[in-house]
Design goal:
This protein has 2 domains: 102 residues, no CATH class; 211 residues, Rossmann fold (3-Layer(aba) Sandwich), CATH 3.40.50. The protein is built from 10 helices and 12 strands. A 7-stranded mixed β-sheet has the order 8-4-1-9-10-12-11. It is globular. The chain starts with a helix and ends in a 5-residue tail after the last strand. About 5% of the residues have low confidence.
């Protein structure tokens, strides 16, 4: 006779597959795993929570996430965990209880100029993008999806500002960088984590090993002046310049159900995010990116993220980096 956990998992598996087929209109491969060691009803509730989290935020139903939740709830009784799970299943993704749980399953590791080869390639493409914008709207828009505490969004803005100065579209003085009229530059950083977004607008980051500033960050340090550290580390911090903070703004966004910011973007970045998503969620996320990237615009994914809609993009190659360009006429 099947054990209760196996019966429950089978029912959840069937329901989840039907849900995914409705959304993706194609068969879906689920990641299945067996818990090691003794199993009890808490495993059932953890699986229910993970499947509900996948539906709401795209987080993969994986062994590591299951073990993380089992550790988190190790002091909860089965009855309490049952009540907690049942309550969360009735709540929308924007509820604070869901946000706390999802934040516990996500990683906010980031730093300035992360993946420098791809950033260098993006920087090399910026002069062409500036020229295209000058014939269109004098407006450049970039979107950092999964921006965490903001380092990627500020890196995009810094590279764009330097490119605009080099192209004669902006002026650099001791007081910062001023865009020539009627030019506008806008960088949106979005994330599902409230905790990360609470820090991002300040743009204050610690220095030192494994901090937001590493060897790759050197080309952009002029955009991040030193400031006394708030922590008792003996090191200085760095803060995003006033120029950066004028052109970057942050907003909470759930890639599974959030409304894509309008109008269209010249480039969308979603790097080191989709690796934590289920297959269904990765495809759904790239559907959203297709709604956001203008024809001729760029899509920058993580190094292990496959492109879902190959025919809609041209693949651009550089040493150590790939960027996808939306084909003109594709919509």
């Amino acid at each position: 006779m099947a054990q209760p956990i196996e019966r429950t998992l089978a029912k959840l598996q069937s329901a989840m597959n039907a849900h995914r087929n409705d959304l993706a209109r194609e068969p879906e491969r689920r990641v299945l795993f067996e818990f090691s060691g003794h199993r009890d009803r808490r495993h059932e509730f953890v699986l229910r929570l993970l499947i509900a989290a996948e539906e709401r935020a795209g987080i993969d139903v994986s062994r590591s996430n299951a073990e993380k939740l089992l550790l988190t709830f190790q002091n909860k009784s089965s009855a309490d965990l049952d009540a907690y799970t049942t309550r969360l299943e009735s709540l929308p993704a924007v509820d604070p209880e869901w946000l706390r749980l999802i934040e516990s399953l996500t990683v906010h590791e980031t730093y300035v100029m992360r993946d420098p080869h791809q950033f260098a390639f993006f920087s090399a493409l910026l002069p062409e993008m500036i020229e295209q914008a000058s014939a269109r709207s004098y407006h450049l828009r970039f979107w950092s999806v999964g921006c965490a505490t903001g380092e990627e969004a500020y890196s995009i803005a810094a590279l764009a500002l330097d490119a605009m100065v080099a192209a004669g579209r902006a002026t650099a003085t001791d007081d910062g960088i001023t865009l020539s009229r009627p030019w506008q530059l806008e960088v949106i950083g979005s994330d599902i984590s409230r905790q990360a977004l609470a820090r991002a607008p300040e743009g204050v980051y610690e220095t030192g090993p494994l901090s937001s500033f590493r060897a790759e960050s050197v080309p952009l340090l002029h955009h991040f002046p030193s400031t006394p550290s708030r922590e008792e580390t003996g090191r200085m911090s760095r803060v995003a310049s006033e120029t950066l903070r004028r052109v970057v703004r942050f907003e909470r966004f759930n890639i599974m159900d959030g409304e894509v910011p309008a109008p269209l973007f010249d480039a969308v970045f979603c790097r080191n995010v989709l690796i934590y998503f289920s297959d269904r969620a990765r495809r759904h996320a790239q559907d959203r990116f297709d709604q956001a990237v203008r024809p001729g615009g760029l899509l920058l994914l993580g190094p292990t993220d496959p492109l879902a809609h190959v025919d809609a993009y041209e693949t651009l190659w550089a040493p150590g980096a790939i960027i996808y360009r939306r084909r003109i006429g594709d919509a």
